[in-house]
């Protein structure tokens, strides 16, 4: 029995090591052919690896299993999106009501929210509670976008719908550029008092593949094609911004429902020019989907370096299956 326990223990250690190497490769390199593996958060695979090492310690009682446990712990601390929030310990969070000034400077409050086509009811009250200056809406029909704009600003604001996307602003929208092939949209907002131009891009990338039957080759193909489609749409939207928005010379907000977690390679398209607002200034649990037990951060706000994220949090609403992202920004 002793030899069997030892053999079983070593087998579990080797399995944990193999899973660790494969996990690190998949999340670091993000090959499209293995996109199905990274659709689940890294801590899911880390949990399996830690189970192997804990079981190995029980059967083997050897230091190597403890070493692998430590390796997994470090990997999850570095690689898990949820761990990024530790760097923001002590930062203040947005509060309902009008956004407070930051170090004596006026704050721009921005919200992004997937409204689920009002299947869960009208989210206007939930949004209005935060008194935002700009709202990015996804899965929101044009008449629903107008309803939210009226609820927020009583007819004094401005808004632009496009398919099932919408942008609502406290200030005047001076220009709109629509993506003719997708629901992504871009507007220019004139901020008072001097009419400073602020470019705002609202995206709703293709719905993520959810096929988890990893034993079937078709599932891997589905995830690969789904990621390629999302890459192409985001690339097209960025090209429109670069050609029409005087980018990157003006302050720009780029956000919406990416249908991809923060660790997905699609976000690397934005890394050279944008800051992830939640990663920079977020507090609390940042995952946005699914509302009741969110395990993925798929709703995002990015800004160019002209804007400084000072506060950010994710807020639950019973009127959507997503949680909304609330962010406070300051112009440099």
List keywords for this structure.
Deoxyribonuclease I, Chain A; 332 residues; alpha+beta; single chain; 6-stranded mixed sheet
Structure write-up:
With 332 residues, this protein is α+β, with helices and mostly antiparallel strands. The chain has 2 domains: 78 residues, no CATH class; 238 residues, Endonuclease/exonuclease/phosphatase (Deoxyribonuclease I, Chain A), CATH 3.60.10.10. 36% of the residues lie in helices and 23% in strands. The protein contains 8 helices and 12 strands. The strands form 2 sheets. Strands 3-4-2-1-12-11 form a 6-stranded mixed beta sheet. A 6-stranded mixed beta sheet has the order 5-6-7-8-10-9. The longest helix is centred in the first third of the chain and has 28 residues. The radius of gyration is 22 Å and the shape is elongated. The N and C termini lie far apart (68 Å). The model has no long low-confidence stretch (mean pLDDT 93).
Query: What's the order of the H and E elements?
Result: HHHHEHEHEEEEEHEEHEEE
What is the count of β-strands?
12
Instruction: State the domain count.
Output: 2
Instruction: Give the % helix.
Output: 25-40%
Structural category is: alpha+beta
CATH class of the largest domain: Alpha Beta
Report the CATH superfamily of the largest domain.
Endonuclease/exonuclease/phosphatase
User: What's the gyration radius in Å?
Assistant: 22 Å
Give average pLDDT, whole number.
93
Determine the number of helices (DSSP H or I, runs of at least 4 residues). 8
CATH architecture of the largest domain: 4-Layer Sandwich
Give a short account of the largest sheet: 6 strands, mixed
First and last CA, distance: 68 Å
Strand content: 15-25%
CATH topology of the largest domain: Deoxyribonuclease I, Chain A
| Dominant shape | elongated
Biggest sheet strand line-up: 3-4-2-1-12-11
Spans of at least 5 consecutive residues whose pLDDT stays below 50 are: none
């Amino acid at each position: 029995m002793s030899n069997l326990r030892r053999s079983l223990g070593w087998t579990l250690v080797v399995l944990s090591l193999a899973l660790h190497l494969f996990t690190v490769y998949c999340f670091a390199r993000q090959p499209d052919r293995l996109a199905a593996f990274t659709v689940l958060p890294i801590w899911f695979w880390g949990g399996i690896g830690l189970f192997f090492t804990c079981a190995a310690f029980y059967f083997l009682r050897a230091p190597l299993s403890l070493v692998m446990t430590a390796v997994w712990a470090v990997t999850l601390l570095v690689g898990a999106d949820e761990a990024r929030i530790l760097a923001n310990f002590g930062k203040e969070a947005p509060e309902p009501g009008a956004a407070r000034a930051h170090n004596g400077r006026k704050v721009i409050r921005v919200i992004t929210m997937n409204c689920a086509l009002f299947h869960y009811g009208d989210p206007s009250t939930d949004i209005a509670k935060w008194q935002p200056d700009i709202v990015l809406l996804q899965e929101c029909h044009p008449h629903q976008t107008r309803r939210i704009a009226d609820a927020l600003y009583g007819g004094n604001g401005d808004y632009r719908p496009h398919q099932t996307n919408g942008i609502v602003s406290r200030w005047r929208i001076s220009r709109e550029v629509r993506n003719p092939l997708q629901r992504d949209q871009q507007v220019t907002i004139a901020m008072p008092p001097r009419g400073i131009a602020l470019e705002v891009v609202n995206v709703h990338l293709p719905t993520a593949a959810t096929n988890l039957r990893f034993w079937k080759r078709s599932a891997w193909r589905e995830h690969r094609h789904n990621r390629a489609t999302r890459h192409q749409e985001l690339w097209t939207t960025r090209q429109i911004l670069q050609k029409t928005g005087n980018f990157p010379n003006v302050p720009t907000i780029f956000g919406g429902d990416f249908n991809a977690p923060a660790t997905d390679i699609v976000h690397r398209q934005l890394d050279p020019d944008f800051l992830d607002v939640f990663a920079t200034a977020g507090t609390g649990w940042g995952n946005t989907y699914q509302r009741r037990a969110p395990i993925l951060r798929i709703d995002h706000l990015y800004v160019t370096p002209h804007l400084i994220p000072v506060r950010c949090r994710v807020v639950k609403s019973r009127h959507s299956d997503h949680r909304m992202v609330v962010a406070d920004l300051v112009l440099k």
